[in-house]
Every structure is written in C-alpha cells, then in structure tokens.
Amino acid sequence: MPLDDLRLAPKAHDATDDATLLDAYSAAVASAVARVAPAVAHVSVLEHRERTQGGSGSGFFIAPDGVLVTNSHVASGARSLEVTLADGRTAPAHIVGDDPDSDLAVLKVGVHDAPVVRFGDSERLRVGQIAIAIGSPYGFQHSVTAGIVSALGRSMRAKTGRLLDNVLQTDAALNPGNSGGPLVNTSGDVVGVNTAVILPAQGICFAIASATAERVATQLITTGRIRRGWLGVGGMTYRLPRRYVLYFGLGDARSAVRVESVEAGSPAARAGVEAGDLIVAIDERAVGTVDALQAALTEDAIGRPLALRLIRRDRMLTIDATPVERPARRG
Length: 331
Hints:
With 331 residues, the chain is of the alpha+beta class. Among the domains are: 122-223, Trypsin-like serine proteases (Thrombin, subunit H, Beta Barrel); 229-325, PDZ domain (Pdz3 Domain). The chain is built from six helices and 20 strands. It has helices at residues 3-36, 72-75, 210-223, 242-247, 267-271, 290-296; strands at residues 40-48, 56-63, 67-70, 78-84, 90-99, 104-109, 130-135, 143-157, 163-170, 182-184, 190-197, 205-209, 229-230, 233-239, 255-262, 278-282, 285-286, 306-312, 315-321, 324-325. A six-stranded antiparallel barrel has the order 1-2-3-6-5-4. A six-stranded antiparallel β-barrel has the order 7-8-9-12-11-10. Strands 14, 15, 16, 17, 18 and 19 form a six-stranded antiparallel beta sheet that branches. It is globular. The mean pLDDT is 90.
C-alpha cells in the first residue's frame, strides 16, 4: 500500500466519527425542538400605558387553557396583548400576574387547546450541558439557537434594582424578542426563562432558573402577586471601619446596611429605627448588604417580629420590627 494511503486512512476514520457525533447532537436538539416548539408563542404588545409603540417578546404555554409564562419586561404595562401560536393562530391575552422583581409574568391567552411544556429541574443542571433557546428574535418566530450552560448561580439586577439570584448563564445566542422564551434541555424540559443578553459581549446570555420560574408562576396564578416583606427603610451597603468591628465584637463582618431614610408610618418607623443606624444582623443572621436585607424580607417574614441588631452611634441595640406585605408598585 502506498505511503500516502496510509496517511489518509486515519483522516477518513476521524471524519466518520465526527459525522456520527454530529448526527447524535443534531438528533438531540431536533428532538427537543420538536417537543417544545409547538408550545412557544410570540407575544405582541398592541397598546402600552407609557410607550407610544408596543413591544414584543416570547412566551411558552404551561397549561392547555392558555396559561403562558413570559418576562415581566415584555408584558408589564400593556393595555392590549396579542399572542401568536406556533400554528399561526392569534388570540388576545391579559396579564394574570406580574412580578418585576423576578422579571416574570403570567398571561391568560384566549385558547383552550394550547400545546404545553413542563418545567424541568434546574437544580440538576451541570456546566457544559446542552442548552436550547426558542423564541422570536427580531420577530423571526420560532427561531432556535443551541449552546451549552456556561455557568450556574449567577446574579443580576432586575429593572427594579432587586437582585435576581440563581440565574443561568448560557452561550445559546439570544437577541431582542427572545425574552420570555424557554431555555430547554435535550429532554425538552424547560430549565430556564430567557431574559437578558449583555451587549456588546459575545455569547453571554442569561435565563431565570426553572426552580425560580415555576415557584413564581405558581404563586402568580394562585394569587396574582408575589408577597414580600416590607420594613420601609432606604439604605446602602456601608463598609464597616475596623474599629467598629473590634469594638462591637462583629467577628469577620466587613459591611452593614446604613439606613438612609425611614418612611413615616412604616414598620421600621414604628419600631424606632432611625436614619444613620447600621443594621448588622436580623434574627442573629449577619446582614452585610442591601441585597442580604432584601433576601431576609421573604413572605415568611410578613407579620413576624424580626430582631434587628443595629449600631447607633456608640451603642449596639436590638429592636423588634414586624414587616408587612410590601405595597404594590404603581404603574
């Protein structure tokens, strides 16, 4: 056998292996898309309370009677909504519940036979798993992109300023219009709700984990809102001087929440919290940042006295304050 033939043989073998692997990858993606795509819809805002022009995004059905999940920033403020299904049908929709703090909303669409998808377990995801995004970027309905889960447990800001935890990072390409669409695994289960892309970065996109999305969607369907505790303080993260840490025996604490304002008649005002106080702990759990303070004010905290440990000038105080349900946002 000529020497050239010997050199070519391994090349042909590698190409065959590559084709086999590519076929397996393609088959996995195509199978997931076939299961999920019928349940993905295009959401159009026909009339908005604040904008002169409507917007658009994506969503997916989780119940055949027209219950659809999307992003809050897609639907919030809409006076009139229209949803286009994968089969070409259009139907009006209205907002069942909207939670800007998690950037999630639930719509009720005027159909009774919608194809549906199911939520998967985002807690079982691993970095490197295949991630498939389906949506309507720039109005191109049911566009599919695929990549991998790039990172888990990211944090990012909602438009309200509240920190979103447990965010998935993926390199499956997202563009305007993908917002609210599903991020799915190769089994066709929704593991995230696509929500944001960093511009002009390449391949850095984010999705709200299904563990969060399913919980929020369930509560929005049940009550129309997400209940969170409210104390009525405005604050900022404050780096503690070393002498404070030593004097008050704060161990390895590095920061606290400095109270900048207290709303009149609020739970904090009734408890005696004052501007300038440094909140260092709630119920003996360290509070080093504004985000940590927000995280402590869950639904479980509503109506339950919380022990606020704070520094006021040269004294350490413990004050009991009972959060109430946070007032609804206006607009």
